Amino acid sequence: MKKIGFIDYFLDEWHANNYPQMIKNFSEGAMEVSYAYAHIPAPENHISNEQWASDNNVQLVNSIEELIEKSDCIVVLSPDNPEMHEELCELPLKSGKRVYVDKTFAPDKDTAIRIFKNAECHETPCYSSSALRFATELNHINTANIDKIYSEGPASLEIYSIHQIEMIVRLMNNQAKRVMFTGSLVHPSYLIEFEDGRTVQCYHRDDPQMSFVLNLIDKENKCEKAVIKSDYFRNFIKALIAFFRTGNIPVSHNQTIDVIAIRQSVITAAKAPYKWIEIRK
Fold it and tell me: CA separation (Å) from 158 to 92, 255, 260?
C-alpha cells in the first residue's frame, strides 16, 4: 500500500476533508492518506488539526521533513492560499518523491516558474491542476475547430477563476496574448485574446448552484453547449492515483504556467477595466 502525506496550511478545508476517502475508494485500498502536516493552527470556526487527524485516522506529524521521510507520495494542499505553495513545496520538490500541488498552483507566473524549476532541478515528478480539467464533457470536443468560447462559472474571481481558465487553456491549446476586464467586482467578466487571434469571454456569478457552462463556437459559426455535470472530482482523483503509480504527469508544466499567467493578468486587469493587459511572456 502506498502511503500518502498531506501538507496543508490548515487541515479543516474541503479538499483535505474529502480527498482521503476518494483516494482510498478509487485506488481500491491500494493508497491511503497516512500522514499530515499543518503549517498553522486551525482558524476560528474550524476543527483543530489534531481533531482532523483523529477523525480521518491520519498521523499528524511535527514537520515537513518527517512527513517526507514517512510518505511514499505527497500532496501539497492549501487550495485557497496559493501564496503559501512556494514555501510548502520547497522541501517536497527536493525529495524526488511524486508530488501533486493543489490548485491554485501559484499567485503569479514568476512564482510558478520558480516552483517548477525547483522540481526540475531535483528530478521530482510533479504537477498541478484544477479538477475541472478532467470533466468528461471536454473529452469529445474537437479542439482544432474551436473559434471562440463563452464560459460561465460560479463564485469569486480570485478563488474560482482558476477553474474556467484551466478548461480554456486545455481547449484552446495556444499561448494567451492579453486580457481585458469588462465587468464589475460584483459581476466579474473578462476577455482573453490568444496569439492566433481567437478570443474567450468569461463570466462569474456568486451563486454556488451555478454550473460551469461552455458555449463553443466553431469555425463554421455553429455553437455547441457543454454543461459540466460529470463527476470531475472522480476523474481528477483517478488521474492523481495514476500519477502516483506511474510518475507520468497528466498536465504539462507549461500549461500550468499559462493558466497562472492568465489568472494573474485577469486580477490585474480588474483594477483597470476596459484596458488590454498584456500577458508577460
Answer: 26, 19, 12
> Of 3.40.50.720, 3.30.830.10, 2.60.40.420, 2.40.160.20, which CATH number belongs to 2-128?
3.40.50.720
40-81 pLDDT tens trace: 999 999 999 999 999 999 999 999 999 999 999 999 999 999
Burial class (CB in 10 A: 0-12, 13-18, 19+), 51: middle
Q: Which helix (H) or strand (E) holds 111?
A: helix 109-121
Which 3 state secondary structure label does DSSP give 135?
coil
Convert 7-20 to b/e letters by CB count within 10 Å (16 or more is b).
bbbbbbbebbeebb
Q: Model pTM greater than 0.85? A: yes
Percent of the chain with pLDDT over 90: 93
Distance CA(278)–CA(275), nearest Å, equals 10
Q: What is the pLDDT of residues 107-137, one digit of tens each?
A: 999 999 999 999 999 999 999 999 999 999 9
CATH class of 132-230+263-278: alpha beta
Name the helix (H) or strand (E) containing 137: none
Strands annotated E in 173-259:
176-181, 189-194, 199-205, 213-218, 223-227
Q: Which three cell numbers stand for residue 159?
A: 478563488
With the C-alpha atoms ordered 195, 256, 200, 263, is the resulting torsion angle positive or negative?
negative
C-alpha cell at 39: 503549517
Residue whose C-alpha cell reads 468528461 in the numeric block: 136
33's enclosing H/E stretch is: strand 31-38
Are 192 and 164 a contacting pair, CB within 8 Å?
Answer: no
Residue appearing with cell numbers 492523481: 240
